Amino acid sequence: MIKILIVDDEKPICDLIDLNLSASGYQCRTVQDGLEALKLIEEENFDLILLDIMLPGADGYDIMEYIRPMGIPVIFITAKHEVRDRVKGLKLGADDYVVKPFSLLEVLARIEAVLRRSPERPSAVNRVMLPEGHLDFAARALVLGEERVVLTTKEFDLARHLAANAGRIITREEILARVWKMDPRLVETRSIDTTIARLREKMGKRNSAVIRTLRGRGYVWEDGA
After folding, report:
1. How far apart (Å, rounded) are the C-alpha atoms in residues 156 and 119?
2. pLDDT at residue 216, as a whole number
3. pTM greater than 0.90 (yes/no)
4. Residue 76 and residue 92: Cα distance in Å, rounded?
C-alpha cells in the first residue's frame, strides 16, 4: 500500500485529507509540526509527502531541502500563492504545488500523476512513445525510426519535463523554474517559445502534435495525440 505523509499545521485539514486519501486506498500519517515531520521521515518510509510551507518548528522549505537527497516525491499544499513562492518550491525540488483552498479531487489527481511520473527516479519508465518513434530518457535522445535526432540539453530537458507530466498544464513559470533553473522574473520567456519551436521541428509534424500550446496558460503534452 502506498504510504503518504501529510504535514500541515491545521489538524482539520490533515484529518480531511487523511479521510479522503484513506478512502481512496492510501495509507496516511499526519503531523502538524515541522520538526516532528522530520523525525517521522527519519523513522519511516513514505512514498509521497504532502507538505505545507508555514509550519512551526521547521518550515516546508527547510524540510524540502533536508529530504531532497532522499528522492521522496513532494507536493506543496499551501496558502502561499505568489509566483515567487511557487517558483521557490519547484526549484527546491517539489514535484507539484497546490494552493489553498483546494479541491480534494484535484489533490487526488495530482498525487496519482506524481506517483506515476518523475523520470529521474529509478522506478519510472525510461521511454515515452510517440506517434512515430519515441523519446528515450535513459539515452537522452529522440528516436525516429532508425534515426537518432540530436537535441540540445534544453530541448531534451523541456521535452522530458512535458512528457513526464503528460496531461497536466505546465506553466511558463514552472518551465523556467524546473528546466531553466531560473527565476522567471530574470529571464525572457521568449526563449521557451524558441525552444518549443525547434523541438517541434525536430520531432516532425505528426509527433509535434503531442505538444499543445494553451494561450496564456502554458503547454500540455497530450498522450495519444
Report:
1. 12
2. 85
3. no
4. 11
